[in-house]
Amino acid sequence: MSTSGAPAAERRGVSSSVPPAAGIPADDGGARPPEDSSPRERPGEEGDRSGDGVVRRSRPRTGRGLVGAVAGVATLVLGGIVWAAPVPYVVELPGPVYNTLGSDNGKDLIAIHGHQTYPTQGALDLTTVYVEGGPNSNVSLLGLIRSALDPSQSILPVDAVYPKGVTTQTVSQENAQEMQSSQDNAIAAALKTLSIPFQQQLKIASLVDNSASAGKLQPQDTILSVGGQKVDSLTAIQQLVANSKGRPLDVVFQRNGAQHTVSITPRDSGGGHYLLGFTVAYSFSFPFSVDFALDSVGGPSAGMMFALGIIDKLTPENLTNGKQIAGTGTISPDGSVGEIGGIVQKMEGARSQGATLFLAPAGNCGEVVGHIPSGLSVVKVDTLDAARHAVESYSKGTDPATLPQCTK
Fold first, then answer.
1. Of 192, 323, 346, 380, which residue is the catalytic one?
2. SUPFAM superfamilies per the record (predicted)?
């Protein structure tokens, strides 16, 4: 999640990551003033000094002397313009961290109502990335050079974060939606881990033009079954479609309170990979409420840490035993942990704030190796259960080197 001068939770496709949103920190809060990357210079005075302290009465200078003086001033001016000139790049740097067990602006980061909770200790920090630059805030050449010399910062083309034709407002809205989705997924994953029942449904989010489902399904339709099997997860649908090998499937769905059935023939997208041609969104009904107080952060990469924070608050055993642990990663309702963006910056930010253990998505291991800050141990995780086990083991004194590690 990120925007110029704001923390982001992730950049999608590099993380989550997800590009950070304009004006919304990515999982990443707290608005950071945009960097003034233009060189700051005090006005100088140009004088005519002979070098010996004697003021001579002489003819006005002409020729090479005047040309040299003008050239010198022009060089200074042009030099200043070049160094301050905007460049088509953005810079990722460490953003703030937020303890999911703590508070922000006087409000609990995670507040649970309608279910018993327990006291917590220590910290389960979610980490963020600042993204400087973008359509509305330029990075200067001088700022870019400074960032290139700082191993905790990364330089990316603007288009990698803000695709052409996509406004910062659109990116900001997407980041906010992804944060909301990550919070819902975190609740679902935590409750599933704790065997607390809740209702989960799949709704059609969008349809691919001219796909197998186009003209048969509509956005907001609730999928009840596929091929005669009840489904409540995307993974279940994907497995049923793969097993069909292109044979027609009956899809039962609900629209405006009425139940319907259509037959859809999956299409081969190449290499025997079959698709129905729609995307889905989860819809949940939880037995109690969980509120999050982190409006200034966007993106999906805080999901895993939110889920761990919920688990800690709902269980009598203290998860961290007072230790400061940080991490990042998207979360699916089934507890799968996904890769994110800005992992290097997030590790640096976590260590600078005192964390000694960092939970990294297995999918980010290629970026982790060789970039771990001194004093920080990193454990790779691919599920919420694995993350919980790592935290519990570390809090009880287990050597983190004996837990799953990122290797080349």
1. 346
2. PDZ domain-like, Ribosomal protein S5 domain 2-like
